[in-house]
Amino acid sequence: MKIASFDEVLKSLNRLDPWLRSLGMEPKSDRWHPAIQRVEKAKKQRESVERGGRRAPINNYMDGIFEALEIHEIVEAFSGDSSPTPSRRSLCAPCVAPSRHSMNSRKTARLAT
Length: 113
Prior knowledge:
Elements: H1 6-13, H2 16-22, H3 32-50, H4 61-78, H5 84-92, H6 98-112
Helix pairs in contact: 1-3, 1-4, 3-4
């Protein structure tokens, strides 16, 4: 199991947009940006609770944490890679290599007939 602090996750998530731009991809308003906001809110709440404050629910907390950790892993895995190909594939394509994708499509077509 990997452990990451709020600060580590926020640091990598805040590198997301500049990293995408460096690959020639314009960042969008996507599911990861609200996840960043949930992690920031959770960090502030943790600090407040540690000082004796009350805990308040955070809407879609678990979904936001999972999404934040997903993009954290992608950014950490590919941030040193200057080639846009694996990065683009990891962010917006199926988890199948292009050569395998066409082979799988042909197999599926044969099975369907």
